[in-house]
Amino acid sequence: MRYNVRSRVLMVGGAMALCSVALVGRAFHLQVVDNEFYRKQGDERILREIAIPTSRGMITDRNGEPLAVSTPVESVWGNPQELLANPERIPELAEALDVPVDYLTRKISQRGSKEFMYLKRRISPTAAKRILARGIPGVFSQREFRRFYPQGEALAHVLGFTNIDDRGQEGLELAFDDWLRGKPGAKRVIRDSRGRFVEDVELIRAAEAGHDLTLTIDRRIQYLAFRELRSTLLRTGASAGSAVVMDVDTGEILAMVNLPTYNPNAVDPRNADARRNRAVTDVVEPGSTMKPITVAAALSAGVVTPDTPVDVSPGYMSLGRYTIRDFRNYGMQTVTGLITKSSNLGAVKLAEKLEDDYFHEFVSSFGYGQKPGSGFPGESSGVLPPPERWYGSTKATMSYGYGLSATPLQIATAYAALGNGGKRVTPTFVKGERHETREVLSPQVADQVMQMMQTVTEEGGTATQAAILGYHVAGKTGTARKFNDTGGYSRRYVSFFAGVVPVENPRFSMVVVVDDPDASKGYYGGLVSAPVFKNVMDGALRLMDVPPDDIDTWLAAQAEADAKRRKAADAEAGTAPVVPVVQAAVSAPSAVPAVSRGAAP
Ligand code: 59J
């Protein structure tokens, strides 16, 4: 046995030694022994180490759909010395490269002492072949890989992009550069003095392809969010916007869009402003989207229940030098009613019942003032001032969303915790990553807050525009005046909607932030941002096969639509509408198709 192993080691070792001897021998032979022969040809052969290019890993969405792919391209390069030695071919080369002759001549002379210059980078293999086919001395080509982003501007901020050398510059391309980037191999080859390849001598290192990366993004929801946000910005004349969709249980980010955006397939270095992933890097005062958190704090502390009456008349109150106002005098409200109507005074009255440290700690546990930990480069932590730095009105203004700041991603994460029974889940972009969770709220209080937020999208709430047929929607609007440089609140606004669906068995949280809508076109969160939420979530619920939790409303609406259609058909056929059928439709929707078919002829 022992003997056996030893003999095998010897054999393998011996074989390897023989191989190296053979390689060295070959190199020696080519360089020294055969050298005379090559010299006779008038060419000098050079032993060179060259890189073996490798492709960058593919990035796919959660369903394996390609989001970033590397396609092989060719880069045409030249040996300036040799190009200069054949000046009569330069006009032809310029024509083949489609550049002015004098420009090319100048470029080549600048590199005259060198042996390498790029002539045209990253073109299609066919285009490269066409240039090489001219047989101009000193013109060569080498394989490279070019990144292509099929989703273009719809997903630009999340993915980021690579530079001409295929290195990640921004976004997830940067964050996961080491993982995605392959290791180029190396081999020793023999080239002639013109740089032409003669023979492979030795493989130094095999090329390792980069690893693929599967994201949590759903391409379809992403596109939906992009389309809806874009149309809302056009409709409202707003200057910027962000939307984030998260899976409440896993923290997976299903969609993240920002406007303005850019084309990652042709990055313009000048518009850095359009390249920011605002949802992760830009902070806003969260305004009324904070109120459910304040209510959750008061419920958790046991100082109120959802039905506790709160007097918010006459709609304004002074606090030190400030006057805090509600949109209207909402009089006596329950705690639930404060959310339904979005009462600033109500939030202040609840916060007054809470210890400073407790309130700060509570808000902080939802992730405000802390980096979300998604791994995205340049995450902002927002600002949540600690009680030591509060002055007279700070706790009051924080309770309804001013005097602190947060990113859209932080707000989406906080709402996910309300939706998943009170666990803060670390947001993530990468499928299969371990999710950290921490209980920040009892499931009972989380459910109570969800019930309260459901009233916002129902009759009498501030965002009936966010209602989705067949599903109960919990959410909160916000319309916040923007703080301006001169130290006051301006007549410019940020419009919010943050919500969770479906209420019975929550799956998604989504935040929509629209910056600076044209005030003359309507700027309330319910008007500007809630429709984006509605249209995207409506699509996502169906795409992800989420069962409806409000079947009654759905069936009733269907029956109503059927009845209307039947009425129209009857009118066209010249018959009088059959009244009993309409009644049957409302009370027993399942019978409608049979009845309608029977009645038609
Ligand atoms: C508001 C504020 C600014 C900061 C006020 C919006 C304060 C405040 C000092 C006046 C427009 C406006 C710290 S209103 O979000 O109350 O979403 O459908 O910006 O109040 O004290 O012309 N939202 N918005 N307040 N500031 N400071 C309401 C409310 C909200 C609505 C509508 C109308 C404000 C119902 C906001 C919505 O809930």
Automatic annotation (TrEMBL):
Signal peptide: 1-22
UniProt superkingdom: Bacteria
Catalytic activity reported: Preferential cleavage: (Ac)2-L-Lys-D-Ala-|-D-Ala. Also transpeptidation of peptidyl-alanyl moieties that are N-acyl substituents of D-alanine
Keyword vocabulary terms for this entry: Carboxypeptidase, Cell cycle, Cell division, Cell inner membrane, Cell membrane, Cell shape, Cell wall biogenesis/degradation, Hydrolase, Membrane, Peptidoglycan synthesis, Protease, Septation, Signal, Transmembrane, Transmembrane helix
Xref: InterPro entries: Beta-lactam/transpept, Beta-lactam/transpept-like, FtsI_transpept, PBP_dimer, PBP_dimer_sf, PCN-bd_Tpept
Annotated active site: 288
All copies of domain Penicillin-binding protein transpeptidase, residue ranges: 241-538
Compartment annotation: Membrane
Enzyme class: hydrolase
Residue ranges of domain Penicillin-binding protein dimerisation in the record: 52-200
Protein transport as UniProt keyword: no
Record-listed E.C. numbers: 3.4.16.4
Biological or metabolic pathway of the protein: Cell wall biogenesis; peptidoglycan biosynthesis
Biological role stated in the UniProt entry: Catalyzes cross-linking of the peptidoglycan cell wall at the division septum.
PANTHER family the record matches: PEPTIDOGLYCAN D,D-TRANSPEPTIDASE, PEPTIDOGLYCAN D,D-TRANSPEPTIDASE FTSI
Record-stated family: Belongs to the transpeptidase family. FtsI subfamily.
Name of this protein: Peptidoglycan D,D-transpeptidase FtsI
Organism of derivation: Novilysobacter selenitireducens
